[in-house]
Design goal:
Largest sheet: 7 strands, mixed
Shape: globular
Number of helices: 7
Bound molecules: S-adenosylmethionine
Strand content: 25-35%
Distance between the termini: 51 Å
Radius of gyration: 17 Å
Strand order of the largest sheet: 7-6-5-8-9-11-10
Number of strands: 11
């Protein structure tokens, strides 16, 4: 019923999170979205932006995905439905309220192909020793990438979690121009022999960075 009504009027439910503030689950045009006060987190423009990035990646060689920032899990839906990716995904999310929303509102569950871990992405990257073929970094609090993910120490650890031919897809900012910090990350990746593609104003807003081993 909510889906049908949403073609005429958006229907919104609000949930408070200690980490992300007021979260909104909105039925709009027959589809459920997850938003914060100022940003779409999942199943709206964010999903289209990450899909644009995934279209630039050869997924047939990808046997494991690490997703930093689960949100409502829309990129998992994109991987499964649009790219028919059936293999394992590990998803790291700091906010337990968001994990509950992903499970209750967007039907994501831990199973053999999906492991959801409630943890800080920086701590996970520092402590975990596994490697992954594709790492998707989609870490925001409202409209901002938390500053530790724009610092080189995070990237040093991240490169150790990537398999030798692995690929990095970084949803880097909502800003229209490259920040000084983002330019430093791009230089750092290039100096570690990565081919780096920078896509600006994807969907008119975000900057996406894709790094592939040379
Ligand atoms: C834009 S949403 C992710 C959307 C998701 N990738 C999707 O496809 O639907 C950003 C997420 O990053 C999470 N996040 C922010 N800081 C984090 C951190 N330090 N560690 C882990 N997750 C974090 C937020 O709680 C939020 O759920």
């Amino acid at each position: 019923m909510a889906r049908l009504i949403s073609y005429f009027y958006p229907i919104t439910k609000k949930i408070e999170s200690d980490i992300n503030g007021t979260l909104e689950i909105t039925w709009y045009n027959g589809k459920k979205h997850l938003n914060t006060k100022n940003a779409n987190y999942s199943y709206g423009s964010l999903q289209r932006i990450l899909k644009f990035g995934l279209e630039k990646i050869e997924l047939s060689n990808v046997n494991s995905v690490l997703l930093l920032g689960l949100g409502g899990g829309s990129v998992i839906q994109t991987l499964r439905k649009d790219f028919n990716y059936k293999k394992h995904i590990t998803a790291i999310e700091i906010d337990p309220t968001i994990i509950n929303i992903a499970e209750d509102e967007f039907q994501l569950q831990n199973n053999q192909q999906l492991e959801i871990i409630c943890a800080d992405a920086l701590q996970y990257i520092e402590e975990n020793k596994s490697t992954f073929n594709l790492i998707i970094i989609d870490l925001f609090i409202d409209t901002q990438v938390p500053k530790q993910f724009l610092e080189i120490p995070f990237w040093k650890h991240l490169l150790q979690r990537k398999s030798p031919n692995g690929i990095i897809l970084f949803n880097a900012s909502l800003e229209k121009s490259l920040s000084h910090k983002l330019e430093s990350i791009i230089s750092y990746l290039k100096s570690h022999i990565y081919m780096v593609e920078v896509h600006e104003k994807v969907n008119n807003t975000n900057t996406l960075v894709i790094a592939k081993s040379l």
